[in-house]
Amino acid sequence: MIRLLGGEDRGLLTRPGMARGCELCFPGRKSVIFVTGLCGDTCYYCPVSRHRLYHDVMYVNEKRVRSLEEIVEEVTRSGSTGASITGGDPLAKPERTLEVIRMLKSVFGESFHIHLYTSGRYATSVLLKSLDNAGLDEIRFHPTLPGLEKRVELALENTSMRVGIEVPGIPGSEKWLLGLARYLDNVGGHFMNVNELEVSEANINQLASRGFKTGPGGVVVRGSRETILRFMELALREGIRVPIHYCPASFKDSIQTRFRMMLTGRSSHRIYERVEKDGTISWVEIIPPRKGRCRKAFSELVGEGIIFPSGEGGFLTHPEAIGHVREKAPGCGEFFLVKAHPTEPRLLIERTLLRP
Ligand code: SF4
Fold first, then answer.
1. Where are the beta strands (DSSP E) in the chain?
2. Could you tell me if the CB of 56 is within 6 A of ligand 1?
């Protein structure tokens, strides 16, 4: 029987033994480190933004970074206990990838869990050993060409890492998925993940030109989920022992990203910011009147540590302090409730005028 992982939007599993990287990803405890956009493949379904793909750029979560120090800073800010290393193909830049893994392990400790995605085309036994020695815990192959799945054996024979396959659920690909699962089972692979195929700005034209349609909400490919479920049933009926995990797109968007934002907000919010239940943050911006009528009241509130100069002539305060500010500085200026994502710099979502 296929098991639910705490509600279907969290995914399904054929057997216990989910990848450790996924367990940490559930509560948003993993930072996503995009080490390079370089990649030797041209998958038509690739969801990676064209601003990143084939460009040698680095990001942590949504933030562009340019050095190892900035990577550490952003991972610290997000409160993560692990990271997933992705791209492009991280192994297109092996030295950088090794450096990132070594640095994460040395700063955050051995228990900081790291997994990595690769097509496998650059995975030699020497490089796999180096990744293992650097501290990589888990490797996930996305075999983009026939035969690349054999890199799983190479990793199993040469390393102590957890080794699995992670692929998108392309509608109608049950036979291919079953072939990969049988192979993993034969060679003793540790897990298989199948992701619901997502639609993004980057792949929508390619998908449409191949006749794929979007499902409700326009963010997934219609038929992807059904293909994955059929494949899981077939794998169970055949007695395939390797645990197979279905990861729905809705989980990534609504749960995992929100949890990660909440952790980032909690670990890095400023004194005047409130972390909201949906992972965003909010604060109040005060625009004082032009004439200096309220100057004295505002300077007292700054002295009390209730409001903070914004640097643009205004002040910032916590949403719960607004009653106190209005009491001390009655009729002074305009108040706006600002909502933002906890990125650095903050990414504004909305700014609403608060009526007295
Ligand atoms: S291997 Fe991954 S990053 Fe490269 S083109 Fe394919 S889906 Fe995109």
1. 3-4, 12-13, 30-36, 58-60, 63-65, 82-87, 113-118, 138-141, 162-169, 191-196, 244-247, 274-275, 281-287, 307-309, 315-317, 334-341, 347-354
2. no
Query: What is the C-alpha radius of gyration for the chain, rounded to an integer number of angstroms?
Result: 24
Asked whether 119 lines ligand 1 (CB < 6 A), one says: yes
Ligand 1 in reach of 103 Cβ (< 6 A): no
- pTM of the model as a whole: 0.75
Q: Quick: pLDDT tens for 186-216.
A: 999 999 999 999 888 899 999 999 999 988 7
Domain boundary at 247, 264, 281, which? 264
What's the domain range around 101?
Answer: 3-264
Domain endpoint, select from 207, 235, 264: 264
Same domain for 178 and 234: yes
The model's confidence at residue 4, banded by pLDDT at 50, 70 and 90, is low
Q: Which of 34, 38, 48 to mutate to test the pocket of ligand 1 (most atoms within 8 A of CB)?
A: 48
